[in-house]
Each structure stands twice: as C-alpha cells, then as structure tokens.
Amino acid sequence: QGQVVESGGALVQAGGSLRLSCVASGIIFNNMAWYRQAPGKQRELVASIVGVTSTDYVDSVKGRFTISRDKNTVYLQMNSLKPEDTAVYYCRVDSIVPPRNSYWGQGTQVTVSS
Question: Which residues pair with 50 in a beta bridge?
Fold first, then answer.
C-alpha cells in the first residue's frame, strides 16, 4: 500500500525560507506535485515535477519556490515567503501502475507572519 508523508512546515517570518519534504513509499511514480489550501479557500496547485527535470509553477510562486526530486522524495524550497503563502501544503504522487491511483499526504502547516 502506497504512502505519502510530508514534513517541514513551520512558523516563519515574512522574507524567510522553508524546505518541505515529501517521501513516497510503496509507489512507482513519475509525477509529483505540491498543493496548498488556505483557510476558506480552495486547494490550489503550487508546483509540479515530471521525472526529475520538468517543472511547473503557479505564477504567484515563480522565482521564489523550487520543486526538486531525489529518488522517492520531492522537495519544495520556499524562499522570500509572504503572509499569503500561509496554508496547509499537501503532496500528491501519481502511480504509474494501473489503476494509476493518486496518493495524498496528510499535509504540513506553513504559517508566515508579517
């Protein structure tokens, strides 16, 4: 059974940095993505990676966040954090084995104080 576990969330001041980690176990995958959900808002896609080099970002984080992958772990390096980055951050991993399920972690809280 596949499992996804995020870590690295914390309280940080505006302008600071954090690195989130997402470890996937028991899953054969190629795509991983980070989402976030702020209170009262819909979950949004923040960054995604296909393989190890093809990445994409929502406009609001371009130039500040970097997604990367090392084997079964995906990272989200977040720099120049803003209060509007405050959210619960979730990792999604897409299995390439039929039925090609998507696996989600439990989320990690990022709070950016002004």
Answer: 31, 54
* Residue-wise pLDDT tens digits, 61-100: 999 999 999 999 999 999 999 999 999 999 999 999 999 9
Phi-psi region of 107 (alpha: psi -120 to 50; beta: other; left: phi over 0): left
Contact residues for 95 (Cβ-Cβ < 8 A; gap 6+): 2, 27, 28, 29, 101, 102, 103
Distances, alpha carbon 61 to alpha carbons 27, 36, 47, 56, 71, in Å: 28, 12, 8, 10, 24
DSSP-assigned letters across all residues of 28-78: -EEEEEEEEE-TTS--EEEEEEETTTEEEE-GGGTTTEEEEEETTEEEEEE
Query: 61 φ, ψ to 5°?
Result: -115, -5
Name the token pair of 36: 């976030």
The total number of residues written for the chain in this structure: 114
